[in-house]
Prior knowledge:
The structure is a single chain. This protein has helices at residues 18-30, 48-54, 87-94, 102-109, 123-136, 151-157, 170-174, 194-197, 200-208, 227-231, 294-309, 318-323, 351-358, 382-388, 399-408, 423-437, 459-471, and strands at 11-15, 34-39, 58-61, 73-78, 99-100, 114-118, 141-145, 163-167, 183-186, 219-223, 239-244, 252-256, 270-274, 280-285, 332-337, 340-344, 365-369, 389-394, 413-416, 443-446. The chain is globular, with a radius of gyration of 23 Å. The protein has a nine-stranded mixed β-sheet with strand order 7-8-6-9-10-11-12-13-14, with helices on both faces. A six-stranded mixed β-sheet has the order 15-16-20-17-18-19, with helices on both faces. A five-stranded parallel β-sheet has the order 3-2-1-4-5. 33% of the residues lie in helices and 21% in strands. With 473 residues, the chain is an alpha/beta fold. The longest helix is centred in the middle third of the chain and has 16 residues, at 294-309.
Amino acid sequence: MKHPEEYRGKEVIVLGLAKSGLQVAKVLHASGANVTVNDQKPREECPEAEELEAEGVRVICGGHPDDLVHPGVALLVKNPGIPYHAAPVVKAQELNIPVVTEVEVAYHLCRAPMIGITGSNGKTTTTTWVGKLLEAAGKSPIVAGNIGTPLCQAAQEATEDHWMVVELSSFQLKGTEDYRPRIACLLNIAETHLDYHGGMDDYVASKAKLFANQTEEDTAVLNWDDPVCRSLVPYIKSHILPFSLNEALQEGVHVVPPYLPGVEDEISRTVVYSDDKGFTHEIIPVEQIGLPGRFNVGNALAACAIALAAGADIASLSGPLTDFRGVEHRMEFVKERQGVTYYNNSKATNAKATSMALTSFQQPIVLIAGGLDRGTGYEELVPVLQDRVKAVVLLGETKEKLAKAAAEAGLKEIVLVDNEEDAAAVLTAAVNRAALLAEEGDVVLLSPACASWDMFPSYETRGRIFKEAVHNL
Length: 473
C-alpha cells in the first residue's frame, strides 16, 4: 500500500472494528481518505461506532452489504482475524484492491525503527522481555501490537529516538506488503492456525513475510534449533543473528554447555553472546533467569539477541533477565494451597506450547486441557504426558482426542468434564476435580493445548475464570 496521506480523497474500507479497527480508521480519516468501517456484528456490539461517527466516519454494522466493495475502492484494511474467504475480502482481491492489516498502515506512519517478533509460541513473553531489556539499556522502547497499545496509535506517538517493539501474528503478517522491521525475530514454528491458513505452507509463508523486505542493513534473529526457521535462511537478505539452546554458535546467543535435546540434567549453564569478532561474552547463569523452563531460556536467548542487535550493552541485560516474572496467562503462578501449586498457562493454544510447559516442572502434574477442535491430533503430547503427568482433567471439543492421547501415555486418571451451557461452571468443575486428584508436592496446570473459542471468547477470559476458581477452592 501507499502512505496513508496518498489516500486523500479516495475511498477506503476498514473491515472489522475493535481497538485496531478504530485506530486505523481514525488515521486514514485524518489523512483525508473517505473511510467506511464495516463490522458484521450488530450495532449494539460495536461500541466504537459512535466515536467514529462523531468524527465523520461512516460506519455500517450488522453484516456486509453487497455493494461495500466496488471498483472505486482504493484500499481495504481488514482486522487480522477476519478470514480471507470472507465475501468483502474475496471481492477486493478479485478487483485487485490491496488488502492489508493494521501493521502495514502503522509501518508507513512510524518514524521509529521497528522490531518485529513472531513465532508459534513465546511471542508475548519475548516481546515484553525485549521491552524491559531495552528500557534498562536506555533505548526508549514502545511495546505495541498484539499486546499493549494498538500499533497505529503507537506509531503516531513514536519518534526517531524510540524503538517500536511489536508482537506479530501470522494473521497480521499475511496482510503486509512493504513492512520492513529493522530487527525481525522468528522464535519457532509449530502446527497451529491451520483452520485459518488452510495448511502449513501458507502459515510458514505468512510468518516468513517478516523478512521479505529486509536488506543487508537489517538483522534477522532466528531460532537455530528449529528446522523450519533454518530452512528460511536462503531467502533472508539481512544479517542473521541466531540463538540456540542446543548448539554452540560461532556468532549468536547460546548456552554453554549446550542442552541435549529432550534430556534434562542438573548441569550449570551460562547464557553467552559470541560476537562477529570471535569473542564470547557471558550474559547470565541460566539458573538466575526469572522464568522457569527450558523454553523460557530460549525466549531469553531470543530477547538478548534482539536487544544486542538494537545496541544494548551486555552489562545491562542481566537485571531484566533476573527480575522478569512473566505476563498473565503464560506460566503464571496463581496460588499454593495445601502443598499444591497452581499455574495458569491459558495462552497455550497448541500442543507444542503445552508440551513445553509440561517440561518446565519436575513435580508430578495434574493437567487441565481441552478446547476448540481445529482438526489436529495430539500424538506429540504422548511422551511428555507419560513422563510428567499423573492425571488429566479434560473439557471442550477436544476432550475425547486428548483422552485418547492420555490413554496411549498409560495414564490411569483421565477425567472428562461434561459440557454445559455455562462455560465458567465447566472450568470451575475441572479445577475442583484437579484439586481432588492433586497431592502435596504436585502442580495443577491449566495448559489447554487448544484455542478457547468453543467455550470462551478469549484465552484471557479462560485464564481469569481458572484463577478465580483456584482462589475459591
